[in-house]
Amino acid sequence: MTTTPARRVTKQRVAIADQLERSEAFLSAQDLHAALSRSGERIGLATVYRTLSAMATDGELDVRRTDDGEALYRRCDTEGHHHHMVCRTCGRTVEIGGPKLEEWLAEVSGRFGYVDIDHTVEITGTCPECAAKA
């Protein structure tokens, strides 16, 4: 069995991880780069893209796509399979489990003979704080 060698821990990787740790929302590479620049970090946008891609590949980040295809990244607290509830106003994200959904998916895929099932579920709404402001 071939294993992927551990990636080098660079100053830039640590800065990106720290910035993601402070956010409850999914962030684009551009938003992350801007936040890092505001905090005094000198890091190129291409480095941010490369590092985010590597961290996502290594399973350190969750990635979701906007309607126009832009990748957004978030460091999740939950290990393993989970889903997200995202505020459409502020972007705040809550990690949720879905055992009933997983059971339903297994039943439906079995009924139609599908195997090796993968899925992504994202629920959008308005968080309590944004709803109170409206």
Report on the architecture of this protein.
By secondary structure, the protein is α+β, with helices and mostly antiparallel strands. It has two domains: about 10-75, Orthogonal Bundle (Arc Repressor Mutant, subunit A), CATH 1.10.10; about 80-134, 2-Layer Sandwich (Dna Ligase, domain 1), CATH 3.30.1490.190. The protein has five helices and six strands; from the N terminus they run αβααββββαβα. Strands 1-3-2 form a three-stranded antiparallel sheet. The chain has a three-stranded mixed sheet with strand order 5-4-6, with no helix packed on it. It is globular and about 55 Å long. It starts with 10 loop residues before the first helix and ends with a helix.
Mean pLDDT: 87
Helix content percent band: 40-55%
Output the structural class: alpha+beta
Strand content: 15-25%
Tell me the name of the CATH class of the largest domain: Mainly Alpha
Reading the helices and strands in chain order gives HEHHEEEEHEH
CATH architectural grouping of the largest domain: Orthogonal Bundle
- Ranges with pLDDT <50 over ≥5 residues? none
Number of helices: 5
Instruction: Give the radius of gyration.
Output: 17 Å
Domains, number = 2
Q: Write down how many β-strands occur, each being a DSSP E stretch of 2 or more residues.
A: 6
Gross morphology? globular
Q: Main beta sheet: strand number and arrangement?
A: 3 strands, antiparallel
CATH superfamily of the largest domain: Winged helix-like DNA-binding domain superfamily/Winged helix DNA-binding domain
Oligomer: single chain
Strand line-up across the major sheet: 1-3-2
Distance, first to last CA = 55 Å
